[in-house]
Please model this.
Amino acid sequence: MQVSAAQKRVYDGFARYVRRNDRRPSLRELAKAIGLSTTSIYQHLCALQKKGLAENEGGMGGWRILGEKSPEQQVALARAQRDRVAELLQEVVEKELRPGTTEWLLWAEDAKTALARCKLGEPIDAD
Model:
C-alpha cells in the first residue's frame, strides 16, 4: 500500500495532535496544526480511508486514524513501560551487575530492547 508524503504528513500530524491534546482534532484544527487547507486535509483523510488507515465516524472530530490508542490506553502503556524499566534497573542493583560481564551484557541487551519498544509505543514484556 503506497502512501504519499502528504498523506503521511496528515496521518502523522493527526496522531501527534491526539497525543498532545488527548482528543481527536477537527479538520480546521488539524489544518492549522500542520499548515494545510481543510480541503486538502479532507482529501488526504479520504485517501487514507480508502487505504484502510483512517475512518470517518461523523460529527466534530469524527475522523480517526486506525491504530491510534485512546488516552486511557496511552496512560496504561506508559505506566507499564515505566514499571518494566524500573524492574530492569532494579536488577542491576540487586545482582550488582558489573559492566563487561556476561550477565551485564545480557541485561544490557534486554534494556536496549525495552527502550526501543518504549520509543515505538509498544508494551514491554517481562521475560
